[in-house]
Write a structure and sequence with these properties.
8-stranded antiparallel beta sheet, about 30% strand, binds zinc ion, Glucose Permease (Domain IIA), alpha+beta
Length: about 180
């Protein structure tokens, strides 16, 4: 009984120690965020990496969700609001930091409903859809960024095991410097 108890205690201490090490790992792929869709109705209109003269010949840096001006936009994962404001062709944007260099950016918004420094949870309403910046119509441009470089949001949201951030592809590393 004593030895069994001691063994259980040692096992517990070992698990606690390795658990702490795992949490200290800065690699975001070690973490899995719990996620929510950014719009109520999911109607994808442009994929990540698509090329079109519309984006100045550059591959598309996000995933587009079609919808109407005023549609609610939700945080895809929990985090802290890092940036709110106009960003050139992206129009009115919000960027949320999820830790470990992972961020989500929401663009072409008609209105924002959070401020820099706000803590948000997955599924919190943060903004309204719009067509600000370089947009042919009302839609959400969602970017998932790893250390500031866009990576494919599709797997992050729709994989069998969602919430894991993949490494940016080579073209994104060339354009945005990994
Ligand atoms: Zn887009």
């Amino acid at each position: 009984m004593f030895w069994a108890g001691l063994f259980a205690l040692l096992l517990l201490a070992f698990t606690a120690a390795t658990g702490t090490l795992a949490n200290a790992d800065p690699l975001p792929r070690e973490r899995q965020l719990s996620i929510t869709m950014p719009t109520t109705r999911v109607n994808l209109s442009a994929k990540f990496g698509e090329t079109s003269s519309y984006w100045g010949g550059l591959p598309h840096s996000g995933l587009d969700f079609d919808g109407a001006t005023g549609d609610a936009i939700f945080a895809v994962a929990g985090g802290v609001v890092k940036e709110v404001g106009m960003r050139g062709s992206y129009g009115r944007t919000i960027t949320i930091s999820h830790g470990d260099g992972v961020a989500s950016m929401y663009a072409h918004l008609s209105a924002t409903e959070v401020n820099v420094g706000d803590q948000v949870f997955a599924g919190d309403r943060i903004a309204r859809m719009g067509a600000t910046g370089n947009a042919s119509g009302s839609h959400l441009h969602l970017e998932i960024q790893l250390r500031g470089v866009p990576t494919d949001p599709y797997g992050f949201l729709f994989a069998a095991n969602p919430g894991r951030v993949s490494d940016p592809p080579a073209w994104a590393c060339r354009i945005y410097s990994c």
